[in-house]
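Recall the central idea of this unit: under ordinary conditions, the amino acid sequence of a chain determines the structure it adopts. In this exercise we apply that idea directly, starting from the sequence alone.
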Amino acid sequence: MTLARSTASRFARIALGHLTREFPNHPDHVMAGPEDVRSPRALHPIFFGSFDWHSCVHGYWLLATLLRLRPEMPEAETIIALFDDAFTEAKVAGELAYLARPESRGFERPYGWAWNLMLQAELLRHDRAWAAIHAPLARAFAERFEAFLPVADYPVRAGTHTNTAFALVLASEYADMADLPAFRQMLQNRALVWYGQDAACPAWEPSGDDFLSPALIEAEAMRRLLPRERFGLWFPRFLPDLADKRPATLFAPARVSDRTDGKIVHLDGLNLSRAWCWRTLASAMSEADPAKPHAITAALNHLAAAIPHVSGDYMGEHWLATFALLALENG
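Accordingly, the structure predicted from this sequence is:
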């Protein structure tokens, strides 16, 4: 479960093949009038490819992360040239102008917001101008979190884009990398409001188009945001029977019946994101915890079920490598 150079190159080639591919495209775009009928590239100077805005954002995160982890891979110079072209003040201003529209208040909430912050966290790890140029866009999304979280009385526990625990996980990465303790505290406070009293999770999953495990991503959010001792008290209450491999559904990779179906192929993403969460959660378990070997085995099994399928049909290919990298490089 490590990132070989050949795998990094494979993932990079996949992303380079779709980041600037404008069509097909599934825009999240509210039109106020006929003047708003515009192409994806006209609406979004940077993030116009990869079938949808959020997949384009995390495609850039994928490439930036691969470049840091495997700077010797043959695709490195192509990636650098792409980023130099994409991250300019004029293009960031274009993305900001789109956000400033009154109709864009709910644009990509919270999934795209969180991925943009995750991208900024990665750009901050690079000794290039990209992070400074992209920073105003990241600040705009952080401000959206700051406005939204205090009025979001209830979490969203879906296994898809609206999941609020996943958003907290990615936003916390930005809070840490950008050294924003107040922002991180806000994320922690909201996690406690939403999930602090949860116990004996039944894990009624998967649903037919999940790419996140509502149970495991909630646990990962609490692992990321709580002090270790406090998480050590919360986690056994939330999933008390892991040593007996229950809930059983969390240990069994999902079956993917049709990888040309844009919703069903989400289940490959579920297997990858579960592998990621099982790895990170296992890292928080003591060596004496009888659940730890089950968690590690579950991570391996889920990764093996999905990693061969990150490319093939475009419905999965435009995004799955991102989740494969999360699974390989965390925990």
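Residues 5-26+39-329 form a domain with the Glycosyltransferase fold (CATH 1.50.10).
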